[in-house]
Each structure stands twice: as structure tokens, then as C-alpha cells.
């Protein structure tokens, strides 16, 4: 039998109305509040990161390959589809999962009442519609023709409200060029991302229409959107691709193109990690104070054990097991509460958000088992190690004085 563990159990089961019971409950509550807050904060952080990244990457991919030019322009410079990169990306770049064509063209959408400046993003049959489908709230993605070009377009909810358009309506677009050219488009669907960079101005249509307006042959495109297998290594992938790609092409990270949004995500990450440190420090100090109180309440017992020949290591283990049990109880309750909150929030969206400020309508939750496990291990180690500080008080307790202690 493990004697220190047995004695610690007997202590915890003694008079339920004793002062130590109340202190023990306070210890458990402090662990529950601290760890629950940490777990929920990290699940929300993971949710924000996933939701925002998925929205941006569904629109643009992870990397952008375009023509290398000295001056920036809204309209893209043509890239040859016979380029070494596009023809051999499956062979040369194993970390690339998918490559799709695109081309941008500035224009004006005009109805009887309103005019709105937009950028038409042309895509083709190789476009990964499945990535973008979660953003579509009405209608469907434009259908491409085998010959010629489609006049179907996908517009944002914000543009549909401004121009009073709905699915199935026709709208004129005047392309910005000399001389101006126009086409009558049909709204096939409406999307919504809550990201101003997209919803304010982007419409999605057929890349062959842009080729016709720009008088491009079928053998060129505006650029390539690249989807990688591992987004954690995008910086390394970008460097490798830039070194090996055609000399007239340039590779951009999408995170650099929308740097303000990604900086906002980094700020959230930093705040959550600061919160983690604060909570762990507070929880450790609470456990140290509570264990010290428990030790002082058991001074006479410590003196009796020493008088009967019990060594300091044995007595330390008794109180370590006592404190450790409180930590484990608090952690179990905290995990149940945090995971229960995650389930309820994902099912019922009980915590709404203002989409204008947060880019989504409710607090997103992502349960990452490895993150949950890591936070539990960190909490257990740091708070558990903090128990060693008050336990050192036991060394200074003298048997004779402690037995007479009142």
C-alpha cells in the first residue's frame, strides 16, 4: 500500500464541515475557472483562425503566381498557359495540391438606379468550386460553356443590396478600357464572406469573357492560384517555388496580400498566450496559498508523524498527493465544462458577433484534441510544480512545538 497516498485520502475524507474542506473547494473552483477560461480561449482562437483563413484561401488559394511587372495594375498581365510551371507543377512541386487559372478586370455594374465599381474575377473549369461553395448563400456558381463564354456571374450579398439585384436578374457591366465595352450579365448566385476586401467589389464570372474583352488568345491567362498541401510551410514553399519558377513569373503569399487581416489574427493569438500566462500564474499562486493553509491546519498531525519516525519525504508526499488530487478534480470539471460549451456553441450559436467587426455572425469554436491535451499537460505540470514551494515549510516544523501547536 502507498502510505502517503492512503493518509492523504483519509485527510480529504475527514469532517466535511472542517475549514480545510472549504479551502479545498476554493482550490478546485480556482482551477476550474482558470483552465475552463484557457480552453475556451484557445478553442475560440483556433475557430477565428480557421474561419478567416478558410474564407481568404477559398477565394485566392495559398500562393499567387502572376506576371512579373514593375508597376502594379488592377488588370492582370497575360501569362502563357504553356509555361514550364503550369505544364509540370504536378511533377516539380509535390507540395502543391491544386493550381487554377484566374484573370481580373475592372468594370462598372449599372442598373436603372445605381452604379457600382467592381472587379470581375474570371475563373475557368479548373476552379475548385467545392472550396468556395460554403460562401454561397443563394443560387449557384456560374456554369461554364464548352464553346464561347458564359454571362453568369456570382455577386456578393452587399452588392446585391446596393444594386437591388437578386438571383436571376440581369445587370450591365461596363469594362474599364479604351474604348469601353459592355456586356449584359445574369446573376446566377449570391455569396457572402463578411470580408470587405471581397464583398465590396468582387464578382466572379467566366475567364473566357475576360479573354474576349482583353482580346487574349485561349493560350494565356491572368495568373495562377496555388493550393498547397501544408499551409504551415508556406514561406518555405514560396521561396522554393520562386527559385524554380519561370523567370518572368512572380510568387506572392496570400497572407502578404491581405496582411492587415493576418496581423489581426496574430494579435488575437498574442493576447490569448498572454492570457494563458496570467491564468497559470494566478492558479499557481492560489494553489500555493491553499496548500500552505492546509499544511498549517495539519501542523499537529505533521508533528505526530515526525515523532513516530516518519521522514520528511513521506510527509511531503502526503500533502503533494492532497494538492495534486485537487488539481486533477478541477481539471476534469474544467474539461467537461469547456467541451460542453464548445458543443452547445457549435450546435446552437448562443454567442453572436457583429459581422462588420469580426467577419462572422457567431463565435467560432474549433476543438483541436492536441491543443486541449497540451493545455492540460502544461497546467498540470506548472501548477503541480508550484505545490513544491509551500511543501518546503514542512522541513521547518519541529515535532515537540507542533504537537503543542494550537
Notable traits:
406 residues, elongated, two-stranded antiparallel sheet, alpha+beta, single chain, 10-stranded mixed sheet, 18% strand
What does this molecule look like?
With 406 residues, the chain is α+β, with helices and mostly antiparallel strands. It folds into two domains: 3-55 and 262-403, no CATH class; 69-247, no CATH class. Helix content is 53%, strand content 18%. It has 16 helices and twelve strands. It has helices at residues 3-12, 19-60, 84-92, 129-132, 157-163, 196-199, 207-214, 234-244, 254-257, 259-297, 299-307, 312-348, 355-358, 369-386, 388-391, 399-403, and strands at 63-67, 79-80, 96-110, 115-123, 136-139, 152-156, 170-175, 181-191, 202-206, 220-221, 223-228, 249-253. Strands 1, 3, 4, 5, 6, 7, 8, 9, 11 and 12 form a ten-stranded mixed sheet that branches. β3 (96-110) and β4 form a beta hairpin. α2 packs antiparallel against α10 and α2 (19-60) packs across α12. The radius of gyration is 31 Å and the shape is elongated.
What order do the helices and strands come in, and which of them pair?
Layout: H1 3-12, H2 19-60, E1 63-67, E2 79-80, H3 84-92, E3 96-110, E4 115-123, H4 129-132, E5 136-139, E6 152-156, H5 157-163, E7 170-175, E8 181-191, H6 196-199, E9 202-206, H7 207-214, E10 220-221, E11 223-228, H8 234-244, E12 249-253, H9 254-257, H10 259-297, H11 299-307, H12 312-348, H13 355-358, H14 369-386, H15 388-391, H16 399-403
Parallel strand pairs: 4-9, 6-8
Antiparallel strand pairs: 1-11, 1-12, 2-10, 3-4, 3-7, 3-11, 5-8, 7-8
Helix pairs in contact: 1-12, 2-10, 2-12, 2-14, 10-12, 10-14, 12-14
Amino acid at each position: 500500500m502507498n502510505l502517503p497516498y492512503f493518509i492523504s485520502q483519509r485527510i480529504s475524507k475527514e469532517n466535511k464541515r472542517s475549514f480545510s474542506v472549504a479551502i479545498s473547494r476554493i482550490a478546485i473552483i480556482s482551477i476550474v475557472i482558470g483552465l475552463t477560461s484557457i480552453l475556451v480561449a484557445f478553442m475560440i482562437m483556433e475557430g477565428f483562425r480557421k474561419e478567416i483563413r478558410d474564407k481568404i484561401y477559398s477565394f485566392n488559394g495559398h500562393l499567387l503566381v502572376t506576371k512579373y511587372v514593375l508597376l502594379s495594375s488592377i488588370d492582370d498581365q497575360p501569362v502563357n498557359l504553356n509555361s514550364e510551371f503550369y505544364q509540370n507543377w504536378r511533377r516539380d512541386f509535390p507540395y502543391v495540391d491544386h493550381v487554377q487559372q484566374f484573370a481580373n478586370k475592372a468594370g462598372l455594374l449599372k442598373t436603372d438606379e445605381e452604379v457600382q465599381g467592381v472587379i470581375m474575377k474570371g475563373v475557368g473549369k479548373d476552379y475548385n468550386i467545392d472550396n468556395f461553395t460554403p460562401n454561397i448563400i443563394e443560387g449557384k456558381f456560374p456554369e461554364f460553356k464548352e464553346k464561347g463564354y458564359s454571362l453568369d456571374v456570382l455577386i456578393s450579398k452587399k452588392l446585391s443590396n446596393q444594386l437591388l439585384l437578386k438571383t436571376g436578374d440581369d445587370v450591365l457591366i461596363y469594362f474599364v478600357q479604351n474604348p469601353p465595352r459592355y456586356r449584359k450579365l445574369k446573376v446566377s448566385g449570391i455569396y457572402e464572406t463578411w470580408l470587405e476586401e471581397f464583398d465590396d467589389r468582387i464578382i466572379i464570372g467566366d475567364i473566357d469573357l475576360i479573354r474576349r474583352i482583353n482580346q487574349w488568345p485561349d493560350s494565356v491567362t491572368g495568373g495562377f492560384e496555388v493550393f498547397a498541401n501544408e499551409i504551415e510551410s508556406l514561406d518555405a514553399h514560396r521561396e522554393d517555388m520562386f527559385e524554380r519558377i519561370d523567370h518572368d513569373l512572380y510568387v506572392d503569399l496570400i497572407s502578404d496580400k491581405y496582411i492587415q487581416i493576418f496581423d489581426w489574427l496574430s494579435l488575437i493569438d498574442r493576447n490569448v498566450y498572454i492570457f494563458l500566462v496570467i491564468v497559470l500564474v494566478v492558479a499557481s499562486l492560489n494553489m500555493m496559498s491553499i496548500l500552505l493553509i492546509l499544511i498549517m491546519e495539519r501542523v499537529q498531525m505533521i508533528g505526530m508523524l515526525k515523532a513516530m519516525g516518519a521522514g520528511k519525504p513521506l510527509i511531503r508526499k502526503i500533502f503533494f498527493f492532497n494538492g495534486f488530487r485537487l488539481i486533477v478534480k478541477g481539471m476534469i470539471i474544467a474539461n467537461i465544462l469547456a467541451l460542453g460549451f464548445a458543443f452547445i456553441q457549435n450546435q446552437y450559436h448562443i454567442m453572436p458577433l457583429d459581422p462588420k467587426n469580426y467577419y462572422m455572425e457567431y463565435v467560432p469554436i474549433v476543438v483541436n484534441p492536441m491543443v486541449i491535451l497540451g493545455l492540460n499537460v502544461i497546467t498540470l505540470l506548472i501548477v503541480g510544480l508550484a505545490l513544491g514551494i509551500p511543501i518546503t515549510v514542512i522541513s521547518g516544523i519541529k515535532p515537540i512545538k507542533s504537537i503543542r501547536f494550537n
